Amino acid sequence: MAVVFDLDGTLIDSLPTIAKAGNAVLADVNLQELDIDVYRGFVGLGEQVFIDRLIAATTLSVTDRPVVMEHFIKRYKEASSQTDLFHGVEKAMSDLKAMQVPIGLCTNKPQAALSVVLDTLNWQDMFGSVIAGDTLAVRKPHPEPLQKAFQDLGSTTGIYVGDSETDAETAKRAGVPFVLFTKGIRVSPIEDIPHDVAFDDFADLAEIVKDLIS
């Protein structure tokens, strides 16, 4: 059985960098910055939804959407090189590989920004499958990206590890167990997000995976 991970808010502490990119776009047009907690409600469904929510929360014009998107992707790529891993992630990856568990990545982050993150972390060869937000015609919470990741890993099913409502819905639609990382980017209380197991320390992940696949 394979394990597939979300990226933002699951493996990397990316909300600060996402907020930085968004505020850089606002600064470009002399608008006031938004608080980081406002951006918490913008993420999870990809850059298209992010831009729609950014426009709705400010005086940005819908007619300027293509330009706003272009500026955001540029700023997002720049900010992505400053991303930090959550504590214990590297050890958890090593533990799973030692257990001979295939691991993959399924994120709504666009490939341009994702490539910067993987290069920064020297993770070009970390995952047996990498599905970005623009790899397929659909993205999470549609189950196809997650299913494609499992297929790439030679598995018909597996475990999805994520941090958000979107990740929980994706796992539900794909019919796989969902493991919720509670220190990530979410809006709802933990108890309102369907999950099989919740954890806040990556030191616990290998044991959680063992229990679920036994």
Task: Furnish the topology, listing elements before pairings.
Layout: E1 2-5, E2 12-13, H1 15-28, H2 36-40, H3 47-56, H4 65-80, E3 84-85, H5 89-98, E4 103-106, H6 111-120, E5 129-131, H7 144-152, E6 158-162, H8 165-174, E7 178-181, E8 197-199, H9 205-213
Helix pairs in contact: 1-4, 3-4, 4-6
Fold and architecture overview:
There is one protein chain. The protein has 214 residues and is an alpha/beta fold. It is built from nine helices and eight strands. It has helices at residues 15-28, 36-40, 47-56, 65-80, 89-98, 111-120, 144-152, 165-174, 205-213; strands spanning 2-5, 12-13, 84-85, 103-106, 129-131, 158-162, 178-181, 197-199. It has a six-stranded parallel sheet, sandwiched between helices. The protein has a two-stranded antiparallel ribbon with strand order 2-3. The termini are close together. The model has no long low-confidence stretch (mean pLDDT 93).
- Measured distance between first and last alpha carbons: 10 Å
**Rg from alpha-carbon coordinates:** 17 Å
- How many H/I helical runs? 9
Q: Quaternary status of these chains?
A: single chain
Q: Residue share in helices?
A: 40-55%
> What are the segments in which pLDDT stays under 50 over at least 5 consecutive residues?
none
Compute the number of strand runs. 8
Q: What is the structural class?
A: alpha/beta
* Share of residues in strands: 5-15%
The dominant shape is globular
Order of helices and strands: EEHHHHEHEHEHEHEEH
| Main β-sheet, spatial strand arrangement | 5-4-1-6-7-8
Main pleated-sheet profile: 6 strands, parallel
Q: Report mean pLDDT, rounded to a whole number.
A: 93
